[in-house]
Write a structure and sequence with these properties.
By secondary structure, the protein is α+β, with helices and mostly antiparallel strands. It is built from 8 helices and 13 strands.
Length: about 290
């Protein structure tokens, strides 16, 4: 019965709004219509029942940042580097069931576009011929459950330059594994972003879009108080994604970002200092 309800939810939320590439007035009208007609099921809009303060992070002093809160994604955008500092969202088993339903949103129906409200946000074409993918930090596969979330995850505020060998390699395999974990947990809290460093290479027409050398992913399961993190170089990787598991403490050392600061100190200390990939459901990615 529960699975049937999830499928009905997904059917109720189908429909694709295709944004224009150049941020035209027709695209603005689509966004306004979408905001006026939010996705609902049986008259109720989807709302998280979890603690939203878990999605908040503390960035290091002096880091350029504009916090942009979309419907289902929070982006800590760096106007100076023109990429996000961090992207946070939740993933529930209900959302995963809806995202995996036959009539969920399809990635090919969406295009990348600039968020006019975000300072210094790149446009989609600034990545052309750069040798880098527009790498989603909040992946589209986790947003297919909702057309608003799907459209907003294609904002360029959610993108970083990623080598295709990483984006379509072990990084994708890790994202597929986490999506699979979402089926088996009531709720996951996920953070993703670049590991910023001095003297990063730049790309784009004005050579002002920073190219990170590494990326992080942090995953926390509130119900079981279990966490894990990953750090991967921005290149093709020789080993399986599981070999890049680490602790949240290590990611905090590398980035200066304070995750899960709203937790009680004893819980935060415990979950951030441990990682054991064997405690998470085994997943064999498609190769």
């Amino acid at each position: 019965m529960k699975n049937l309800l999830y499928i009905l939810l997904a059917l109720a939320l189908t429909g694709c709004a295709i944004p224009s590439d150049n941020g035209s007035s027709s695209h603005d009208e689509e966004m306004q219509q979408q905001q006026q007609q939010p996705d609902t099921f049986l008259g109720q809009r989807y709302q998280s029942t979890g603690d939203q303060s878990l999605l908040e992070v503390k960035l290091p002093d002096g880091v350029s940042n504009q916090t942009v809160k979309y419907d289902h994604i929070t982006i800590y955008f760096n106007p100076g580097n023109r990429i996000p500092n961090c992207v946070a969202y939740e993933l529930t088993n209900t959302q995963v069931a809806m995202a995996d339903a036959p009539d969920a949103e399809q990635r090919e129906d969406y295009k990348f576009f600039r968020d006019k409200k975000a300072e210094n946000c790149p446009d989609w074409w600034e990545y052309k011929n750069s040798g880098y993918d527009r790498g989603h930090m909040a992946p589209a596969m986790d947003m297919r459950w909702n057309k608003t979330a799907m459209q907003q995850c294609f904002y360029m505020t959610n993108m970083c330059p990623q080598r295709h060998e990483l984006n379509d390699g072990e990084w994708r395999h890790m994202e597929e594994a986490i999506h699979n974990w979402g089926r088996k947990n009531d709720r996951l809290v996920i953070f993703t972003g670049p590991i910023l460093s001095k003297n990063m290479k730049k790309m784009g027409e004005r050579h002002d879009i920073a190219i990170p050398g590494r990326f992080f992913k942090v995953v926390y399961a509130p119900a079981s108080k279990r966490a894990i993190a990953f750090v991967m170089d921005n290149r093709g990787l020789e080993k399986s994604w599981t070999n890049y598991a680490t602790t949240i403490d290590e990611v905090e050392t590398l980035t200066g970002i304070d995750f899960l600061a709203s937790l009680d100190d004893d819980i935060e200390t415990a979950v951030e200092s441990k990682q054991d990939i064997k405690q998470w459901p085994k997943y064999t990615p498609r190769r």
